[in-house]
Design a protein that fits this description.
single chain; 291 residues; alpha/beta; 6-stranded parallel β-sheet; two-stranded parallel ribbon
Length: 291
């Protein structure tokens, strides 16, 4: 079977390429080989390669970069997704679109303490109405909506922030993620600061990669694809490092603005895909990396 992975030079795309090329014929084209803004070029590439499945990871995922150049990022994140979807519909390829938990980033400040707690503890569901604030979240939502029209059989995965061990290239580029930050803290004893009002799901990228084979067989639709969480980043980090007797390395900081990007994975679990809770997954990762 043939797979096509767009964005194969990125964090998730590179890991998908490395894992699945051991099982299938996989093409991970460079920007020169597949320019997402060129609709005709995308169609020619898919007609030539004839993939059974397309994993569309290609995007400008830097939130700040999208805000700085919304028109330029729109051409990649929305128009590019449209071109891929249209080509998939033409050649009969199953499309898996990598969306984002940023679609849940809305500006909401409940007045009372009880309302704030209820808002923070409620995990976002795929069926919830969304009105994202960040440009990146707006663009991912717009792409999801286009895909439903152009390629109704597609699967959109709302991915959380991910972590994994870094490649040498990623280390040289100064890349970091939550898993490596916590690992560094354990190794160096240097403290970390997290907000107690920032609620997020955070997921092991290697689990995302391994479950992708099941994901491309899901019924069409939108899925939260990652670990659940009901804790702030501060409390999550403390729980994780407490498993190693070092919770004192985590400090509380940041402003008091409330953000909830946690995801309810119930729909996904009904389809046989299960991720551990955020803290549990991080503890497993740190034990594996430090052991």
């Amino acid at each position: 079977m043939r797979l096509l992975v767009t964005g194969a030079g990125g964090f998730l795309g590179s890991r998908l390429l490395a894992y699945y090329r051991q099982r299938y014929e996989v093409w991970g084209p460079s920007h020169r080989e597949l320019e997402l803004t060129d609709g005709e070029g995308v169609l020619r590439a898919l007609e030539a390669w004839r993939p059974k499945v397309v994993l569309h990871c290609g995007a400008i995922s830097d939130v700040a970069a999208c805000s700085a150049d919304p028109a330029g990022s729109y051409r990649i994140n929305v128009d590019g997704a449209y071109h891929v979807a249209k080509a998939c519909a033409r050649v009969g390829a199953r499309l898996v679109f990598c969306s984002s938990d940023q679609v849940y980033f809305r500006r909401e400040e409940p007045a009372s303490a009880n309302d704030r707690e209820a808002f923070a503890l409620r995990q976002n569901r795929e069926s919830d109405p969304v009105c994202p604030v960040p440009v990146y979240g707006k663009q991912k939502l717009a792409a999801e909506e286009l895909l439903r029209e152009v390629c109704p059989d597609s699967v959109s995965l709302r991915l959380s922030w991910m972590y994994d061990a870094l490649t040498e290239s990623e280390k040289n580029r100064g890349r970091r993620n939550l898993g490596t930050m916590l690992l560094d803290a354990l190794e160096t004893g240097e403290g970390l600061t997290f907000s107690d009002t920032d609620y997020r799901s955070v997921t092991d990228a290697s689990r995302v990669v391994r479950w992708m084979e099941t994901a491309w067989q899901l019924p069409a639709g939108v899925y939260n694809f990652g670990s659940g969480s009901r804790q702030s980043m501060y409390r999550t980090a403390r729980q994780v490092l407490a498993a190693f007797g070092r919770e004192e390395l985590v400090r509380k900081g940041g402003d008091n603005s409330l953000r909830n990007l946690t995801m309810d994975a119930g729909k996904l679990e009904k389809n046989g895909i299960c991720f551990p809770e955020t803290a549990e997954g991080l503890i497993d990762f740190l034990r594996e990396q430090s052991g």
